[in-house]
Design brief:
Layout: E1 2-7, H1 10-26, E2 30-34, E3 38-44, E4 53-59, E5 66-70, E6 79-83, H2 85-93, E7 100-107, E8 111-119, E9 127-134, E10 136-137, E11 156-159, H3 163-174, E12 179-184, E13 190-195, E14 200-205, H4 221-224, E15 232-237, H5 238-247, E16 254-260, E17 264-270, E18 274-281
Antiparallel strand pairs: 1-5, 1-7, 2-3, 2-6, 3-4, 4-18, 6-10, 7-8, 8-9, 11-16, 12-13, 12-15, 13-14, 16-17, 17-18
């Protein structure tokens, strides 16, 4: 089992750092899955227990100048590592003006991701700062716990308004309530609502648009015959939504959410090189 990678291009390094910073804000620990073509950051808190789930996917060729990995076996050419993303985020903060960054899986006293940052130097010799990030290798028998979550059979799918706008609204609402209702319909309308004994506040969005979804048999069953004006809604923990909006540094070109009434809200943020899915369960 081996892994080593290198980033030389500064723009790629900054993009990768932004993704890792986002993950660090969304998860205290997560699973890093490495394959020959892609990297995944995965958080699988059990939604049934009220936890959020996350699936972030990156094409390694869009970030790394060199990328070599050998999985646990020829027929299972993958590596699964549990790590604290904040540690990786801190290591990459020292690399903002780096000439190169190397990441290597090592096993001196315990399994580690060794991050070597080559910094520019006035002399001919280069300065290298090294960070050893402890990881836990996840055995193959547990890999099935980290499969990509399926897109829920949602009632409504809708494009989100500007995330900065959403963030400022949710931050103000957070001072008034612990929960928020997200409701939307197939006519491009979405509302953010809080209701307490003392106050009721609703923010309306119009003309957002609804993504064209097709399932394997060519249609999305639950949304297909739905009344365009009919609202699907879910009440979720406002802190979890605020965490997503405040933490994301992916700067997506497309952002949308799928609502399964009274069960779950599934957010998808898409950038050229990155896709981030985030699942927040509804409150009872």
């Amino acid at each position: 089992m081996r892994f080593r990678a290198k980033i030389v291009d500064l723009a790629c390094l900054n993009n990768f750092s932004r993704v890792v910073n986002t993950i660090a804000r969304l998860a205290k620990t997560c699973t890093l899955r490495l394959t020959a073509g892609k990297l995944y950051f995965i958080l699988c808190d059990k939604v049934a227990n009220g936890g959020v789930s996350m699936w972030c996917e990156l094409c390694q060729g869009n970030f790394f100048d060199e990328f070599q990995m050998e999985g646990v076996a020829a027929d299972h050419n993958e590596i699964y590592l549990e790590l604290t993303p904040e540690n990786l985020s801190r290591a990459l903060k020292t690399a903002q003006s780096a000439k190169a960054v190397k990441i290597k899986l090592t096993n001196k006293h315990c399994p580690c991701l060794k991050v070597s940052v080559e910094l520019p130097s006035l002399s001919s010799s280069s300065r290298i700062v090294t960070h050893d990030i402890p990881v836990r290798v996840i055995p193959r028998r547990l890999w099935n716990d980290f499969r990509e979550p399926s897109v829920p059979d949602f009632d409504v799918s809708i494009y989100l308004p500007a995330l900065k706008t959403m963030k400022s609204i949710v931050e103000r609402m957070k001072n008034l309530s612990h929960s928020i209702v997200i409701e939307a319909n197939l006519n491009g309308e979405m509302n953010l609502k809080i209701e307490t004994d003392l106050v009721s506040v609703t923010t309306h969005f119009k003309n957002l648009g609804n993504p064209p979804w097709a399932s394997e048999d060519g249609c999305q069953s639950s949304a297909q015959d739905r009344d365009l004006e009919s609202m699907a809604e879910a009440r979720i923990d406002i802190k979890k939504l605020q965490q997503l909006l405040a933490g994301q540094q992916v700067n997506p070109t497309k952002a949308l959410c799928n609502i399964v009434s009274k069960r779950i809200v599934h957010f998808i943020l898409l950038h050229e090189d990155v896709s981030l899915q985030y699942f927040i369960p509804a409150l009872a």
